[in-house]
Design goal:
The chain is built from two helices and 13 strands, in the order ββββββββββαβββα. It is mostly beta strands. Strands 1, 2, 3, 4, 5, 6, 7, 8, 9, 10, 11, 12 and 13 form a 13-stranded antiparallel β-sheet that branches. It starts with a strand and ends with a helix.
């Protein structure tokens, strides 16, 4: 899918020495990232209601709630929200290690939604709908799913990719906030880069044993 580069969005904050996150939007109607080698959490296996705890991409604090599919869901499946649905104003996702990439489906965006990235205790980026809505075409507005097609036509439904442009702006956590409890911040399909994976010492041992056995077998056949 074609992506739209929204640009390097710099955060002006006296506590930040160097900050910058590159924000790109997937094509209209996309509900997942096109970035390769990612791990995605889609919330579909989780029970409805208040949610916190460890997942494959990190640990969620209390504050968010899992919601059944409705017209705020851009892919007509379960999603996580904060605000009206949870009667809270924020929750935090803390990654297992510092990340250079994070993607999410931002559903039915409105002015109260705020996404804030942190590297430890230092804020490295903050985004609201006004940050990117001016760069989105008409195709992003309204629910793109077949089930709820066109509903919430005044609000953007967009899959966004956030990428650190320097080690100082890698992120260890992200906070999802909604400035009141009368509206919701509905998101889905969180993605991070999959670990590259380094073989465990035992794996190396098994590999060495296998190669040794093959060598002995080949030597026996040549005698």
């Amino acid at each position: 899918m074609r992506k739209i580069l929204l640009g390097a969005l710099l955060v002006a904050n006296v506590s930040i020495v160097s900050a910058g996150i590159i924000l790109t939007a997937e094509a209209p109607g996309a509900t997942t990232t096109t970035v390769a080698n990612t791990t995605t959490l889609d919330f579909n296996s989780l029970s409805l209601g208040a949610f916190s705890g460890a997942t494959a991409i990190g640990t969620f604090s209390a504050g968010g709630t899992i919601v059944a599919p409705d017209h705020y869901s851009g892919d007509a499946t379960k999603y996580i929200s904060v605000g009206a649905q949870s009667n809270t104003t924020s929750y935090t996702l803390t990654f297992n290690s510092a990340q250079t990439f994070f993607g999410l489906l931002w559903n039915a965006g409105d002015a109260q939604n705020v996404l804030t990235f942190f590297n430890g205790a230092t804020q490295v980026g903050s985004f609201n709908v006004a940050t990117f809505s001016g760069s989105l075409g008409a195709g992003y507005y309204g629910n793109p799913s077949a089930t709820f097609k066109g509903q919430d036509g005044s609000e953007p439904f967009v899959y966004l990719d956030f990428t650190s442009n320097a080690s100082a702006t890698n992120f260890t956590s992200v906070v999802f906030s909604n400035n009141n409890k009368s509206t919701g911040f509905e998101t889905d399909n969180y993605a991070i880069l999959a670990p590259t994976g380094v073989p465990e010492p035992s794996t190396y041992g098994m590999l060495l044993t296998g190669l040794t056995a093959l060598g002995l077998l080949a030597r026996r056949r040549s005698v």
